[in-house]
Amino acid sequence: EPPQLELVYTLENSSDSVTRWSPSHLHVLRNEIQQVWTAPNSGLLLQAGGAVHMVREVTVGHRSILKMAFETRNDDKPMAPFHQP
């Protein structure tokens, strides 16, 4: 089955917050963590269930993101509507 993908799109970022990731929780416990400051108008594409990812809290400035999840289907059934009037 194809993996679910997550897109984290940074709209604005004047903060000191950084996005952090590591291959596993064991690596996090060992403090083997990579990090990056996400610039405005940039995106990160992650595979759900892949790398452990987190965001260090904002202590200065602000950060606005848009987060989306994408999933593929392998059948012919229509997807249920998200909102019904």
Question: What's the count of strands?
Answer: 6
User: What's the helical proportion of residues?
Assistant: under 10%
Instruction: Give Rg in angstroms.
Output: 16 Å
Strand order of the largest sheet: 4-1-6
Could you tell me the strand content as a percent range?
35-45%
Terminal-residue CA separation: 32 Å
Q: Class by helix and strand content?
A: mainly beta
| Mean pLDDT score | 88
| Order of H and E elements | EEHEEEE
Coarse morphology? flat
How is the main sheet built?
3 strands, antiparallel
Poorly predicted regions are: none
Number of helices: 1
Note the main attributes of this structure.
three-stranded antiparallel beta sheet, single chain, 85 residues, mainly beta
What does this structure look like?
This protein is mostly beta strands and 85 residues long. 6% of the residues lie in helices and 40% in strands. It is built from 1 helix and 6 strands; from the N terminus they run ββαββββ. Strands 4-1-6 form a 3-stranded antiparallel sheet, with no helix packed on it. The two termini are 32 Å apart. The model has no long low-confidence stretch (mean pLDDT 88).
The gist of it:
The protein has 85 residues and is mostly beta strands. The protein contains one helix and six strands, in the order E-E-H-E-E-E-E. The protein is flat and about 45 Å long.
